[in-house]
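Incident log, structure service

09:12 report received: a user says their structure output differs between two submissions of the same chain.
09:20 pulled the input from the user's history:
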Amino acid sequence: MTLLRMKFLIIFWTLSFIAYGDAGDKQRKLYLSADKQVWKSDSNQYKRLYQQLNDYPLQPYLDQKRLMHNITLAKSSEILKFLDKYQGSPLERPLRKKWLKYLAKRNRQTLFIESYKPVANVAMTCYYYRYKLNKGALEKDILPKVTSLWLVGKSQPKVCDPLFKKWQQAGYRTESIIWRRIKLAAIGGKHTLIPYLTKLLPKSQQYLASLWHKVRRDPAYITRLKRFRNKSAAEAEIFSYGIKRLIWRNPKSALKVYDKAVSVFTFTEQQQQLITQKFALALASKHHKDAQKWLHKVEARLLDDGLIQWRIADALRSQDWSAIIAELDSLPKANQSKLLWRYWYGRSLIETGNKEAGQSLLTEVATQRHYYGFLASSYLGIPFNLQDQPLEFTKQEKTQVFSHAAAKRAFEFFYLGRYTQARKEWNYWLTHLNDKQKLIAAKVANEAQWYDRAIFTLSKVGYLNDVNLRFPLAFDDEIIRHSDKNKINPAWAFAIARRESSFMPDAHSAVGAKGLMQIMPGTAKHLIRRSVSKKYLLNARNNIKLGTKYLRKLLDRNNGNRVLATASYNAGPYRVKSWLKNIPSIPADMWIETIPYKETRDYVKSVLAYQQIYQVRVGQSGSLFDELVTMDIVN
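09:34 re-ran on a clean worker, output below:
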C-alpha cells in the first residue's frame, strides 16, 4: 500500500467514524457484494447482506435499485413512499423517471398524475399535461404552459404531438411563435427542423425561412446580395446573422460584402453595433490590419472585457508607450479599476518618465494574489503577496455539518470511486447548508483528499484566501516523482493539473480530453506508441505520467520556454507555432496579451499564477515572474 493510500485511509476512517460509526472496510465490501446481487433480492444470501447494512449510508441505493428492477403496480405503495422520503435527493429522480415511464406505457393516468414531479424529461411532461386534460383540467390552465415545450430549436418527442395539436387548434401556434422557433433552430439549434417549420408559414413568408436555413448551413450564402430580393427588415436580420458568422471564417469576404450591404439594407442601430462588435473581435483576434479601426467603432457603452482586452493588446503590439497611455485613457472609467488596465497603465507611466506615479500604481497592483499582482511585484522587485487567510473550524463544527445523510452518502461514494454519484450527493447536501457550513464542508473535503469539491465550493461561496485549500498538494507523491523523472518543475505540473481539472481524476472535456491533466487519447498514443483505453487515462497515476512526459516534450520543442510550452499544452504546438510567424521580438507579458484565443490567453495567465503559488507550496524560493518580466518572445 502506497503512502498516499495510507494517508487517505487514515483520514477517511476518521471521517467515517464522525459520520456513522466505524463501518470500516467491512461494510463497504458488504455493500459492493450486495450491490451486485440486488437483482436477486429474494435470495437468502442477499437478505443476509442487506440486514448487515442497516446503519450503512448507501443502503437506500440498494432499495432504489431493487424497486427499479422489474417495476410492477404491486410495488406502487412502496415506490411512492420511497419517492416521498427522498424527494429532491439524487435517490429520487432515476426511480421516479422509470416509474413514470412504466405508468405511461400502461396508460395509468390517475396514478401517473399522483406520482408526477418534473424529472427533466419532455416526454413525461407531455404525458402529464395530456393526462391532466383528459381528467378534466381546463385548457386555459394547461395549454399556455405548452408553448415553452414547443418553442425550442429541436424536434420534440412524438408523444407530445397530440398535446401540440390541441395547443395549435386553440390558436396558440401563431405566425410570431413559428418565427421564433425558426430563429431558435437557425441560431444554435437543429437547422434540419427548419424545412418542417417553413411549411407552417404562409406561402409569402416561406422564402424567408428557406433563406434562414441556407444562411445557417453556409454563411457565405450572404455574399450574393441579389438573393435578398426585397432588402426588407426580415432579410436584414438574416443577413446580420450571417455576416457575424462569416467574419470569423472569411474576413476579406465579410468586409467586402458588408461594405455593399450598408447601402442596400436598413440595419437597426442594434444590428449595426452587434455587427461592429463581432467584426472588431474577429479581426483583432486574427491580427487583421483593420482591427484597430473596428475596435474604435464600438460605442463605449457596448465595450465588454473581450473588446477592451483587444484594444489594449492592439496598442501593446506597437510598443509605443505614449500611444498605449492614450489608448488606456480612452477606455471607460469603469474599466480603469481592473488589474489589466492598472498594470499596463503603471508600466506605461514608468516607460514615459512618470516613474513615481507608475510605481505607486504598480505597488497597489502588487498586493493582489493574481497574475498581474505577481507581474507587478517582480517588475518593482518587491515580495509578492499570497494574502493567505486559512480557514479554521473545530471538530464539533465539522461533526455537526457532516451529520447530514447526504454528506455520508457523498463521502462513501467518493471512497468507492463512484465520483459521479458522489458529486450528485455532494451538490444535494450543499443545498441544505449556509455559506459558513459550506466552507466547513470544503475543509472536510480537503482533509479527505476530495480536492475538487473543496476548490469548487470555496469558489461558489466566494472565499478565495485559503491558499492551501484552493491550491492543494494533491497527488503529490505521483506528481513530484514523475516531474523529477521528466526533469520539469513539479510546481508547473501541479499548476497544470489544478487548471485543467481541479484534481478531478474522472474529468472529461467536450473535445475528448480525459483525466487529471486532461490528456487527449491521440496525445497519449503519440507519447507511448500505442492506443490506450478510457479507463487507462482516468487512472490518476497513468494520467500524471503522461501529462508530465508531454510537458517535457513541449518544453524541449519550445527551447525551454515555459510560456510557449504552457500555451502549447492548451492550444496545441502547431497553433502556437503559427502565432509566432512574422512577429518581431516582443516582451513576454505583451505577447501573452496578444494570444488570439481568449481561452489560451486566460489559461497561460492562470497557470503562471498557479505555478507561483505552488512554488511556495513545494518550498521553492524566488519568483518565476522575475524571469517573465525580462523575457522576450521571438520567432
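09:41 both user submissions now match this output. Likely a transient worker issue. Closing.
09:42 reviewer note: Confidence is low (pLDDT under 50) at residues 1-14, 16-22. The chain has 38 helices and two strands.
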